[in-house]
C-alpha cells in the first residue's frame, strides 16, 4: 500500500458484507484485528489502488526532415500518406522509403537512397515517409515490424517490396529492373543473344497492329513484375517480340503466346487452355518449370535455415564473387550441366556410344594411373537380354589385370613409362578402331594429385623444382574441355551456388578463406554436408579462376578423388609463449605434437560448453604438476568444437582421454569409460601404457633372442630411468606433503588465535548485555517515576480546577448576599422616609 494513496476494498462473505474507505493504516488494522469480519471460510477480497498523483507524459518532439534539402527525395516527415497516393498517381515509377528517425538501419540506408535518387531522379519519383510519428496517417494505417521498408510501384501495379541489401548498387539495379521489366527484341540476333545467357528467359509474342496494346500484353508485363516481387535479383528475364518473322526463330506463330526457354530440356509454351492467363498463373508456371543452373544465395544475416535447406540437397559448390561476376562462372555451370552429345568431345561420343556402364581400375604399377573398362552395347550376348553391369573378378583384382586387359581390350598395353609420361593426355592410349563384336573397351590415363601450399612446398624441396612448375590440376584435360557434360558422367553431382563476396565474406572466412582477401577477392569451396567434409579451392597465381574451378570440379568428380579435406581450427599463438603445464593443441599443431615419437602424449578432448569437462580440469592440472619434471610425457588438450581433426583422431563423446605412447603411436589407447577419471587412475593408466626403448629394438629381439646383452642393457636403462622418474615424483609428493603440514600447522595457530578473539568478544558481548539490561531497568524506573509524576500532576490539576470552581461559587454567593444587604438597607431607608 502506498502511503500517498487511498485504498478502496469490498469484502463479501456468506454472512457479512462490509464497505470501508479510509487511510491504509486503518484498513490494515481491520484486516489484522477484526476476527468477526473474516471468520467465514469463503471470503473474496478485491482491492483497487489508485494514486493521487496525475499521470503526466511529456509530449513528443515534433519530427524534422530526415533527408537533406538538396536530395531529390520528397520527405514526408509528418507521415502524410495521402500525399504519397497523390505523388504515386502522377508518376510512372514510384520509390517509397518508409523509415523511423531513430532507426540506425534507416540512417545507414539514407545515404544509399540519396545516391540512387541523384542518378534516377528523372525517371523515378522518390518519396520518404516517416512511419513512426504517432500522429501521422502512415503510423495508424501500417504495421511494419522492421525499418526501413522500400516499396516500388510501376504505374498502378504494386507494391513491389525490395528485400535485398540496402546498398546503392543493389538498390539501383532493382530499380532499373522495375523501370524496364521487359526487353524489346526487334531482330533474330537480339533473340539469340537474349536466349544465350544461363538465366531462365521468357519471351512473349504480341502483335501491335490492331491496337496500341494487345489485351494480353498488360498481363505479360504484370507477370514480369510479379517475378520481381518473388526475386529481387531478377534472375528470370522477360522479353517481348512484336514481329512475326522474328517470333518464327523460336517457332512462335500464334499471337499472345508466352514461351519459356530451357537449355537442357524442351522449351515450353504457356498452356492457355489449361491455365488462366493471369500474371499470377504465368509467374507460378515459370517458377515451377524453369531450369536452375546457378543459384544466387543471400543469407539474411539473422537466424535462418537457408543454407541448411540448400546444403541438405547434396554436394554444393559455393562460389564467392563480386556483385557483377564475370561470365566464366555461369559458363562453367552451363557446360557442367550440358549432357547433350552435341556438346561432348569426340572421345566422349564414341565412348558413350559403345558403352553403357564402366568401372575404373587402378593400374598395379602406379596408384595414380587409372583405366576405365566398359561393357560394349554392341556385344551379341546382350542383344536380347537387358544389360547388367557385372564385371568378372579379373577386372576387379590386380594380379592378372595386365593379361586380361591385354587380351580383351588393347592390342598393346601401355607401359608405366608411357602412362606416366607428360605427353599422355586424356585417352591418348584409346584405340583408333574397335571390332563391333568386342565385349570390352578401355581408356587409360594418369591422375595427378592436387597439391596445396604445404604439399607443394615439400614436393619442391624433395625434387628441387620451383613451385611455379608444379602442375596445379589433378586430371589433365582431354581433347575437349573436360567439364562439359560432367554432371551426367559421375554420381557425385554438384549444385552451383553464388554468394556476394562483399556481403558474405565472414562465411567464406569460416569455410577457410584468408582474412586478407587477396587477389580479386573470389573464393570457392565444395561442401558435402552428408559426409561432413568440405574442400577449399587452392587458387594458384599461374592459372586463371576458370581453369582452377574446372580442375577443382574434375578432382571432386573423379572416381579416385585426391582432394584433401579442409580442416578449420583456431590460429596458433604468434611468437614464443611461455611454457604451460598443459599444452593447448589446434588443428595445425595437432599432428606434430601428438605424433612426436620421442614423447608420450596424454590427450584430453573437451569443448567449451561441456560441463563435465570443466569438472575434470583440476584433475588434469594436478596430473600435469606431478609430471612437470618428466620431459618424456606431455599432457595436452584440444577443443574439438573449434578445431577439426582427421577422422582417425576423432572421438564419439567428450570428455575423452587418449594416450599416444612413444615409439608406437599406432598403438594408441583410450582411457576406459567404466573407470572414474581420478588422479590415481590416470597415473596407473600412464605407467601401464607408457613407451620404452624395447619397442625400438623389437626386430632385433626377435632375431637375436631374448638373452642378448644389448637388449638387457637398454631394458635396464629404461627401468632405471622409470625408477628415477618415480623417485622424482615421490620427492615432489613429499615436498607437497611437507607444505601441506606447514599450512595445516599455520591454520591451527590461526584457529587458536581466532578462538581467543572469539572468547574475548563473547565476554564483551555479555558485558554489553549486562549494561543494556541495567540501562533498560533504569529507563523503566525513570518511566515509572515520570508516569507517577504525570498522574500526580493530573490529580493536582483536577483539584486546582475544583478549587477554582468552589472559589467561584463562594464569590458569587458573597456578592449575592452583599447585594441583598444593600437592597434591604435601601428598602428600610425608603420605609423610614415614607414614615417621616
Automatic annotation (TrEMBL):
Family matches, as InterPro entries: Thioredoxin-like_sf, Thioredoxin_dom-contain_11, Thioredoxin_domain, TXNDC11_thioredoxin
Occurrences of domain Thioredoxin (ranges): 62-184
Domain of life: Eukaryota
A Pfam family reported for this protein in Swiss-Prot or TrEMBL: Thioredoxin
Database matches in Gene3D superfamilies: Glutaredoxin
Region span, Disordered: 816-836
Protein name: Thioredoxin domain-containing protein
Organism: Astatotilapia calliptera (Eastern happy)
Amino acid at each position: 500500500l502506498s502511503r500517498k494513496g487511498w485504498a478502496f476494498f469490498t469484502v463479501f462473505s456468506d454472512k457479512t458484507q462490509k464497505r470501508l474507505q479510509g487511510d491504509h493504516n486503518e484498513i490494515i488494522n481491520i484486516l489484522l484485528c477484526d476476527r468477526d469480519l473474516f471468520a467465514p471460510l469463503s471470503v473474496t477480497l478485491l482491492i483497487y489502488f489508485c494514486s493521487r498523483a496525475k499521470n503526466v507524459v511529456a509530449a513528443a518532439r515534433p519530427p524534422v526532415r530526415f533527408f537533406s534539402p538538396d536530395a531529390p527525395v520528397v520527405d514526408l516527415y509528418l507521415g502524410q500518406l495521402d500525399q504519397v497516393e497523390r505523388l504515386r498517381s502522377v508518376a510512372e515509377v514510384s520509390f517509397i522509403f518508409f523509415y523511423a528517425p531513430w532507426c540506425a538501419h534507416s540512417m545507414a540506408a539514407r545515404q544509399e537512397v540519396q545516391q540512387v535518387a541523384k542518378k534516377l531522379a528523372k525517371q523515378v519519383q522518390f518519396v520518404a515517409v516517416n512511419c513512426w510519428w504517432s500522429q501521422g496517417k502512415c503510423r495508424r494505417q501500417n504495421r511494419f515490424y522492421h525499418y526501413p521498408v522500400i516499396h516500388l510501384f510501376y504505374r498502378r501495379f504494386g507494391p513491389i517490396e525490395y528485400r535485398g541489401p540496402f546498398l546503392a548498387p543493389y538498390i539501383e539495379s532493382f530499380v532499373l529492373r522495375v523501370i524496364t521489366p521487359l526487353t524489346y527484341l526487334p531482330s533474330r540476333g537480339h533473340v539469340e543473344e537474349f536466349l544465350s545467357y544461363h538465366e531462365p528467359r521468357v519471351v512473349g509474342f504480341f502483335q501491335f497492329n490492331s491496337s496500341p496494346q494487345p489485351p494480353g500484353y498488360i498481363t505479360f508485363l504484370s507477370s514480369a513484375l510479379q517475378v520481381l516481387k518473388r526475386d529481387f535479383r531478377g534472375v528470370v528475364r522477360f522479353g517481348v517480340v512484336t514481329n512475326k518473322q522474328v517470333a518464327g526463330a523460336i517457332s512462335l506463330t500464334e499471337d499472345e503466346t508466352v514461351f519459356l526457354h530451357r537449355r537442357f530440356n524442351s522449351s515450353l509454351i504457356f498452356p492457355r487452355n489449361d491455365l488462366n492467363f493471369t500474371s499470377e498463373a504465368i509467374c507460378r508456371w515459370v517458377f515451377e518449370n524453369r531450369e536452375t543452373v546457378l543459384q544466387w544465395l543471400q543469407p539474411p544475416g539473422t537466424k535462418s535455415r537457408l543454407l541448411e535447406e540448400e546444403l541438405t540437397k547434396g554436394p554444393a559448390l559455393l562460389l564467392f564473387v563480386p556483385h557483377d561476376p564475370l561470365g566464366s562462372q555461369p559458363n562453367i555451370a552451363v557446360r557442367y550441366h550440358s549432357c547433350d552429345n552435341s556438346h561432348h568431345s569426340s572421345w566422349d561420343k564414341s565412348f558413350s556410344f559403345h558403352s553403357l556402364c564402366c568401372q575404373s581400375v587402378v593400374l598395379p604399377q602406379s596408384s595414380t594411373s587409372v583405366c576405365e573398362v566398359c561393357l560394349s552395347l554392341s556385344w551379341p550376348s546382350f542383344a536380347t537380354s537387358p544389360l547388367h553391369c557385372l564385371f568378372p573378378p579379373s577386372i576387379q583384382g590386380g594380379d592378372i589385370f595386365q593379361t586380361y586387359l591385354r587380351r580383351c581390350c588393347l592390342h598393346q598395353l601401355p607401359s608405366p613409362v608411357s602412362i606416366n609420361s607428360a605427353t599422355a593426355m586424356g585417352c591418348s592410349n584409346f584405340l583408333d578402331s574397335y571390332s563391333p563384336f568386342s565385349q570390352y573397351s578401355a581408356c587409360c590415363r594418369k591422375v595427378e594429385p592436387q597439391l596445396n601450399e604445404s604439399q607443394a612446398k615439400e614436393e619442391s624441396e624433395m625434387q628441387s623444382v620451383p613451385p611455379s612448375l608444379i602442375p596445379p590440376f589433378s586430371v589433365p584435360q582431354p581433347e575437349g574441355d573436360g567439364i562439359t557434360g560432367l554432371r551426367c558422367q559421375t554420381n557425385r553431382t554438384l549444385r552451383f551456388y553464388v554468394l556476394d563476396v562483399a556481403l558474405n565474406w565472414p562465411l567464406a572466412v569460416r569455410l577457410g578463406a584468408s582474412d586478407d582477401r587477396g587477389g580479386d577477392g573470389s573464393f570457392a569451396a565444395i561442401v558435402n554436408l552428408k559426409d561432413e567434409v568440405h574442400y577449399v579451392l587452392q587458387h594458384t597465381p599461374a592459372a586463371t579462376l576458370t581453369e582452377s574451378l574446372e580442375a577443382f570440379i574434375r578432382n571432386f568428380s573423379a572416381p579416385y578423388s585426391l582432394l584433401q579435406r579442409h580442416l578449420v581450427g583456431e590460429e596458433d599463438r604468434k611468437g614464443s609463449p611461455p611454457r604451460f603445464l598443459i599444452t593447448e593443441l589446434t588443428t595445425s599443431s595437432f599432428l606434430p605434437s601428438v605424433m612426436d615419437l620421442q614423447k608420450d602424449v596424454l590427450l584430453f578432448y573437451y569443448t567449451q560448453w561441456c560441463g563435465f569437462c570443466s569438472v575434470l580440469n583440476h584433475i588434469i592440472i594436478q596430473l600435469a604438476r606431478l609430471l612437470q619434471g618428466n620431459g618424456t610425457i606431455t599432457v595436452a588438450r584440444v577443443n574439438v568444437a573449434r578445431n577439426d581433426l582427421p577422422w582417425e583422431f576423432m572421438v564419439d563423446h567428450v570428455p575423452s582421454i587418449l594416450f599416444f605412447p612413444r615409439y608406437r603411436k599406432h598403438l594408441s589407447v583410450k582411457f576406459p569409460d567404466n573407470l572414474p577419471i581420478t588422479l590415481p587412475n590416470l597415473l596407473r593408466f600412464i605407467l601401464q601404457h607408457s613407451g620404452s626403448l624395447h619397442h625400438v629394438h623389437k626386430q632385433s629381439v626377435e632375431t637375436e633372442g631374448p638373452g642378448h646383452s644389448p637388449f638387457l642393457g637398454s631394458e635396464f636403462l629404461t627401468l632405471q630411468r622409470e625408477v628415477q622418474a618415480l623417485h622424482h615424483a615421490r620427492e615432489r609428493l613429499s615436498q607437497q606433503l611437507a607444505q601441506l603440514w606447514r599450512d595445516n600447522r599455520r591454520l591451527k595457530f590461526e584457529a587458536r588465535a581466532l578462538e581467543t578473539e572469539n572468547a574475548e568478544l563473547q565476554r564483551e558481548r555479555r558485558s554489553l548485555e549486562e549494561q543494556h539490561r541495567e540501562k533498560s531497568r533504569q529507563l523503566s524506573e525513570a518511566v515509572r517515576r515520570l508516569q507517577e509524576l504525570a498522574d500526580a500532576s493530573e490529580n493536582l490539576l483536577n483539584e486546582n480546577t475544583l478549587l477554582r470552581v468552589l472559589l467561584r461559587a463562594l464569590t458569587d454567593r458573597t456578592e449575592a448576599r452583599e447585594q441583598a444587604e444593600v437592597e434591604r438597607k435601601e428598602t428600610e431607608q425608603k420605609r423610614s422616609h415614607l414614615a417621616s
